[in-house]
Every structure is written in structure tokens, then in C-alpha cells.
């Protein structure tokens, strides 16, 4: 099976969680402060992650925070930016715009972080998939423009 099969299953799990995240945001009645829903969701996620981390095994928490605190902070900022971006994107434009987010995430994460920062391996298939991502963004732009005529 190699690494692609297990990676595909984990990506599917994350995609299912993401779909639940989007579904719940769209179903919630958010007439006033929509960010309060995200704060509550982040708290629920925090509690569940703390519970899960105790099952996995707790290291020395103080040492863990001291040596990885800056990365926890940056991860939290990244999650907050993602949550706010999701909220405004989906509530203003609809869930169908997820493909735009997904394509841009491929570029920023796979290309920007994976290839440029961490120097992960690159081959012609991955370059072609990245090109297909750029094509997907262009096609979405054309599709949106045509529906607004």
C-alpha cells in the first residue's frame, strides 16, 4: 500500500471533520457575532484535544510548553486565521467556494511550506498536480464570473 493509502485515509478523516465544521457553521444562526461560534468551537476542540492527549500519554507539560511554546503560539495563530477566514468565506460566499480555499491551501502549504521551506521531494507528477491546482483556481474564477452575468 505504501504511504499514499494511509495518507489518503487520514486526509479523508480530516476532510470529514472539515465538512462537519463547515456544515455546523452554515446551520448555526449567526445574526450577531459569528466569531463567538468559532470561540466556542475552539474551546470544545481544546477540551477534546486535552482529553485525547491524556490517552496518548502526557509528557512533562511544563517542559513541553517551554520547548515548544513558540510553535504552539504560531499554530494557534494559524488556526485562528483559518477559522476566521473560513467563517467569512463560507458565510459570505457559500460552501461551494471551498474549492478556492482548498486550491490555495495546496499552493501555500504544499508548495510554500513543503517544497520551499522544508525542501520536501518534488517530481514531475507533483509539479503536474500543482499545475492542475492553478488550473482549478482559473476554472473556478471563470465559473463564478459566468454565474454572475
Number of strands: 0
Compute the average pLDDT.
Answer: 88
Helix content: over 70%
H/E series, N to C?
HHHHH
Class by alpha and beta content = mainly alpha
Number of domains: 2
Computed Rg: 18 Å
Main sheet attributes: strand count, strand direction, barrel closure: none
Kindly report how far apart the N and C termini lie.
47 Å
> How much of the residues is beta strand, in percent?
under 5%
Outline the low-pLDDT stretches: none
Shape: globular
How many helix segments? 5
Question: Can you walk through the features of this model?
Answer:
The longest helix has 33 residues, at 61-93. The chain has two domains: 33-93, no CATH class; 94-149, no CATH class. With 149 residues, it is mostly helical. The protein has helices at 4-27, 34-56, 61-93, 98-117, 124-147. The protein is globular.
Summarize this, please?
The protein is mainly α and 149 residues long. The protein folds into 2 domains: 33-93, no CATH class; 94-149, no CATH class.
Task: Outline the fold blueprint.
Blueprint: H1 4-27, H2 34-56, H3 61-93, H4 98-117, H5 124-147
Helix pairs in contact: 4-5
List keywords for this structure.
mainly alpha, 2 domains, single chain, about 150 residues
Amino acid at each position: 500500500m505504501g504511504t499514499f493509502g494511509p495518507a489518503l485515509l487520514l486526509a479523508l478523516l480530516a476532510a470529514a471533520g472539515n465538512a462537519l465544521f463547515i456544515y455546523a457553521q452554515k446551520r448555526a444562526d449567526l445574526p450577531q457575532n459569528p466569531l463567538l461560534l468559532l470561540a466556542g468551537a475552539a474551546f470544545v476542540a481544546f477540551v477534546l484535544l486535552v482529553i485525547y492527549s491524556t490517552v496518548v500519554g502526557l509528557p512533562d507539560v511544563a517542559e513541553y510548553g517551554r520547548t515548544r511554546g513558540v510553535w504552539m503560539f504560531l499554530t494557534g495563530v494559524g488556526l485562528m486565521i483559518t477559522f476566521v477566514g473560513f467563517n467569512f468565506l463560507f458565510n459570505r460566499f457559500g460552501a461551494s467556494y471551498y474549492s478556492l480555499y482548498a486550491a490555495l491551501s495546496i499552493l501555500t502549504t504544499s508548495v510554500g511550506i513543503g517544497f520551499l521551506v522544508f525542501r520536501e521531494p518534488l517530481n514531475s507528477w507533483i509539479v503536474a498536480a500543482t499545475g492542475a491546482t492553478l488550473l482549478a483556481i482559473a476554472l473556478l474564477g471563470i465559473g463564478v464570473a459566468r454565474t454572475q452575468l
